[in-house]
Amino acid sequence: MSIVVNNITKLYGEQKALNNVSFTVNTGEIVGFLGPNGAGKSTMMKIITCYIPPTHGAVKVCGFDILEQSLEVKKQIGYLPEHNPLYLDMYVKEFLEFVGGLYKVDNIKKRVAEMIELTGLQVEQKKKIGALSKGYRQRVGLAQAIIHDPKVLIMDEPTTGLDPNQLEEIRGLIKTLGKEKTVMLSTHIMQEVEAVCDKVIIINKGEIVANESTQNLQKNTSKQVYTVEFDANVSKNSLKTISGVREVEQISENTWKISSTEDRDIRKEIFDFAVQNKLSVLTLNKEEQKLEDVFKQLTK
């Protein structure tokens, strides 16, 4: 496993930012690390990348302990923080050669050329970083994070403030990187997680509230939602008598949205209701739960 987090607690005075957090990230996974503002995401990422120590607990990255072998850990990690720290007065190539020199990268000019091509910086490579758009600055940040060919890539809000075209390009780059590296990214954009992540870890108030594959998390929600259209009008109160129904919402004259009280399929009960009331079911659709709905349920 690339990242193993065991019982991490982080205190800032009397404030508990992380409370006994444990999870693992397997080699080759793209993991979305989600949570509301102040949930502890950035704190956890800073601990993994050796920027701050935990109060209690242990973390290993590629088998190296963050406290006892921090230099080895840093060699394994590429890190793109939320506020991308760049030297704005440096040119793109100059900056990447500087970073590569810090990591003692072999054949540095060749490696810089590879990073410029991989991140799509060919047109902008001779410009000063301060003259670039935010999207291109993010590309420079990604290039510096992977120039030493790390096994693990950690990104904190990598697509904040990007336009739709830039979003698509950066997501595509993340998916490409995820084929060879372990990627852990935090974001508030649920569509981004659905588009690129294999697994989702959700943290709320310093504690893990979900740790599942993206597909399973959307399936294993506390309710199922159905849209049903009958051939005649029916009352809201009568629909509430169906076994397992939690909420009923009228969409149009004969069309209703029905939520179940628990994670079970109640389509048979809806059909039985129609038969008992001499109704015909014109359409019945089980809605796919969106990750955003699951996130809201888990972080209320």
Structural features:
11 helices; 29% strand; single chain; 300 residues; 14 strands; 6-stranded mixed β-sheet; Alpha-Beta Plaits; 2 domains; Rossmann fold; alpha/beta; 4-stranded antiparallel β-sheet
Count the strands?
14
Q: Order of strands across the biggest sheet?
A: 6-7-8-3-9-10
Distance N to C terminus: 31 Å
Q: Please state roughly what percent of the residues sit in beta strands, choosing from under 5%, 5-15%, 15-25%, 25-35%, 35-45% or over 45%.
A: 25-35%
Radius of gyration: 24 Å
Q: Give the name of the CATH superfamily of the largest domain.
A: P-loop containing nucleotide triphosphate hydrolases
The amount of helix comes to 25-40%
- Secondary-structure element string: EEEHEEHEHHHEHEHEEHEHEEHEH
**Tally of separate helices:** 11
> How many domains in all?
2
Average pLDDT works out at 89
CATH topology of the largest domain: Rossmann fold
CATH class of the largest domain: Alpha Beta
> What is the name of the CATH architecture of the largest domain?
3-Layer(aba) Sandwich
Q: Judging from the principal axes of the Cα atoms, what is the shape?
A: elongated
Let me know the largest β-sheet: 6 strands, mixed
The stretches of 5 or more residues where confidence is low (pLDDT under 50) are none
Structural class: alpha/beta
